[in-house]
Amino acid sequence: MPVNGFLIVDEKDWKGLDADRRDWLIFNTLKSMDGRLKKLERWNKASSFVGGIIGGALAALGIKVGS
Fold first, then answer.
1. pTM to 2 decimal places
2. Range of 53's domain?
């Protein structure tokens, strides 16, 4: 049963599923996790890039002010 976009399968439901259905649930779960991780990796790279620009600008400003 989907809850907040996630498929929740309890132990009772899992035991009632046949092997093919279990394999599909595992496959879909791994595929979904892969997609979410790719989005997080892109966000992390973008955040690092922006942080580097801001940090570099502040360092350059600090050097000019300190001199």
1. 0.58
2. 2-66
